[in-house]
Amino acid sequence: MKSSLNMASISSHFDLPLVYESHAEIHSGLINQTYLVHLIDPATGEDHPYIFQRINTNVFRNPYHVMENIIGVTEHFKSRLIAEEGSWHRRVLSFALSKEGVPYYESAEDGFWRAYEFVDKTVAYNAAPSGDRFFQAGKAFGTFQRYLTDYDATTLHETIPNFHNTVTRFEALKTAVQENRAGRLNDVQRELNFALAREADAGLIVKALESGEIPYRVTHNDTKINNVLFDVDTDEAICVIDLDTIMPGAALYDFGDAIRSGASTAAEDEPNLDNVEMNLNMYRLFTKGFIKGTHTLLSEKEIMMMPLGAKTMTLECGIRFLTDYLNGDTYFHTDYSGQNLLRARTQLKLVADMEAKMGQMKGYAEQYSEQYATRFASGELK
Ligand code: GN1
Ligand code: MG
User: Is residue 242 within 6 Å of ligand 1 at its C-beta?
Assistant: First the structure.
């Protein structure tokens, strides 16, 4: 399918008064295929860059539901931006409609495609380039959650069932162990023992949601640092992207997954585990940004559980990579054999490091929430 990719033809199915000029693949996500496509206004010669994505329909079994969620949420987000900030320009994704009037184009040959306007003068990073930008990312993801508090979560489709149900993720790992489909079980004994020793703790967030101790919110669920766009001039995090997994969930999922990816000192597949740590200062700064972005939304219980959120999301991601390694790399995109095992190892190393730093991680969220609560109450911050 890849070699026969005809972007000129794919782009012609969207209702845009523009003509195709060129495209380049963007290799960052592990699930969908993403392209920067240059479309030209034939009257003026002006370039209108778009992002085109082919949805991985093995992962997102119902891509119509994915797009329904995304359109609903982005429309709501726009109205909140207008109400709170006066404009939504460059702050939310804007999707193109096809000539049939739907926000996607599909065919048996090309697959399932969507297109959105490239947000000009922005950049995404695979690793947080500075503490300030990680603080900014925290604020953006926190604000994202706050603007969606009044979104009717019952209208959302569950695009991937049990996506952050760490309990069922452990079940999937155990099934993969039993099946040993790729014959790799012997490579992973140490990682497996480490993960299974933490299985009981992995259910704590799920249990807190089910018992009503913490609320279900509309969450992003994939808050990897490369899923937020930064303004190249101001370094502000202005637009949250990759909206495929927006579903009801715990605020701790969004907080935790961002820490997992952005507070790590190394790449997800770093082979030398001595290089992999959770940077405590980055943890602190993201916490500060997230608390600032959510204003006074989070409950005391949620705030208290934030360090656990970081650990749980990292453990979950570790066992997801491990499961995929055992299954023969069928879910996450890999560039080389063994990449999923390296990814699993970095995540589990981060879990160990978080356990060692847990005493220090605790307290930041409480501290910032008190500070910001006072500043919001006095009207100093809005
Ligand atoms: C995937 O698509 P991407 O790269 O933003 C995955 C996340 C994982 C992440 C690990 C739908 O995210 O859950 O945390 O890889 N997305 C899905 O890098 O499974
Ligand atoms: Mg992504």
Answer: yes
| Close Cβ partners of 158 (under 8 Å, ≥ 6 residues apart) | 247, 248
Q: Ligand 1 in contact with 267 (CB < 6 A)? A: no
- pLDDT tens digits, one per residue of 253-262: 999 999 999 9
What's residue 381's pLDDT?
Answer: 85
Contact yes or no for 241/229 (Cβ under 8 A): yes
User: 325 Cβ partners below 8 Å, 6+ apart?
Assistant: 182, 184, 187, 188, 338, 340, 341, 344
pTM of the prediction? 0.96
What is the per-residue pLDDT for 377? 87
- The answer, yes or no, to whether residue 278 has pLDDT greater than 80, is yes
Ligand 1 atom with the shortest distance to the CA of 245: 11
Ligand 1 and 302: CB distance under 6 A:
no
| Smallest CA separation from ligand 1 atom 18, residue | 30
In Å, how far are 2, 29, 63, 105, 111 from 54, measured between CA atoms?
Answer: 11, 12, 10, 10, 7
Domains along the sequence of the chain with CATH = 7-120 (3.30.200), 131-378 (3.90.1200.10)
Pocket test for ligand 1, best of 69, 70, 222, 227 (most atoms within 8 A of CB): 222
Residue pLDDT, tens place only, 206-235:
999 999 999 999 999 999 999 999 999 999
* Rounded Cα gap, residues 204 and 3, in angstroms: 46
> 56 CB under 6 A from ligand 1?
no
CB-ligand 1 contact for 30 (6 Å cutoff): yes
Are 242 and 107 in contact, with CB atoms under 8 Å apart? no
- 8 Å CB contact between 37 and 7: yes
Cα–ligand 1 centroid distance for 213 (angstroms): 27
Cα distances (Å, whole numbers) of residue 59 to 67, 99, 176, 215: 14, 26, 17, 27
Q: Could you tell me the distance, in angstroms and rounded to a whole number, from the CA of residue 221 to the centre of ligand 2?
A: 11
29 Cα: distance to centroid of ligand 2 (angstroms):
4
